[in-house]
Amino acid sequence: MKGYLVVFFTQQNRKHGEVSVASFILEEAKKLGVRGATLFSGKEGFGHDGRYHADNFFELEDPPVQVSMALSPEECDNLLNLFNEEGLRVFYTKSEIEFGFTSES
Prior knowledge:
This protein is an alpha+beta fold. 24% of the residues lie in helices and 38% in strands. It has a four-stranded antiparallel beta sheet. A two-stranded antiparallel ribbon has the order 2-3. Strand 5 (44-46) and strand 6 form a beta hairpin. The radius of gyration is 15 Å and the shape is globular.
């Protein structure tokens, strides 16, 4: 199947309403019928504003997280439109991919 690999970048403690942005992304993707998504916790990084984010013994500065999913073009449009309607501003990357399973079973 042709589609997109979409990766959303945020921080562990960033909220949208009462839930974390990462949880909101996962919940909404599932509601829209997305077949799967993965949440990755980052060790450290910095954002577009230059702020440092880390999760280590000496610094607990709102660690980075990524939510990654393979989407059909329709799923991608639906998810990004929903986030726009919700007023969710989050950085993402979108790459064209081919995806599927290696066997029938």
